[in-house]
Design brief:
InterPro entries: ArsR-like_HTH, HTH_ArsR_DNA-bd_dom, WH-like_DNA-bd_sf, WH_DNA-bd_sf. This is Winged helix-turn-helix transcriptional regulator. One of its GO terms (molecular function) is DNA-binding transcription factor activity. It comes from Mucilaginibacter mali. Pfam families: HTH_20. The protein is mainly alpha-helical and 107 residues long. It has 2 domains: 64 residues, Winged helix-like DNA-binding domain superfamily/Winged helix DNA-binding domain (Arc Repressor Mutant, subunit A, Orthogonal Bundle); 37 residues. The protein has 5 helices and 2 strands. The chain has a two-stranded antiparallel sheet with strand order 1-2. Strand 1 and strand 2 form a beta hairpin. It is elongated.
């Protein structure tokens, strides 16, 4: 079953894995050392991320390196952009209201 991207990034460990992989490709063994958990536990998190296409696997000899898939995250960012513009508009309106109230208070 293919995982939903929102379910994948809802987990704090998976978000931490994505942050690590954004810096450099890592093997599950190296990731397990950074999270104080077993390789199997890390592999389960990676499986979810891989099913969502958020990470890509690359075989190098006997090791599998996982890479952050920035292209997939960019798709997610584009989806969020529509909400970001709405939030910014609302915050700008709030800033203007607070400035008006502050100016009225100093008069």
């Amino acid at each position: 079953m293919k995982q939903d991207i929102f379910q994948a990034i809802a987990d704090p460990t998976r978000r931490a894995i994505l942050t690590l992989l954004a810096i450099q490709a890592l093997t599950p063994n190296v990731m397990a050392e950074k999270f104080d958990m077993t390789r199997q536990a890390v592999s389960k998190h990676i499986k979810v991320l891989h099913e969502c296409d958020l990470v890509k696997a690359e075989q190098s000899g006997r090791e599998i390196y996982y890479h952050f898939n920035a292209k997939k995250m960019q798709e997610f960012d584009h989806w969020l952009a529509q909400f970001r513009q709405s939030w910014e508009t609302q915050f700008n309106q709030l800033d203007q209201l607070l400035s008006t109230i502050k100016e009225q208070g100093t008069e």
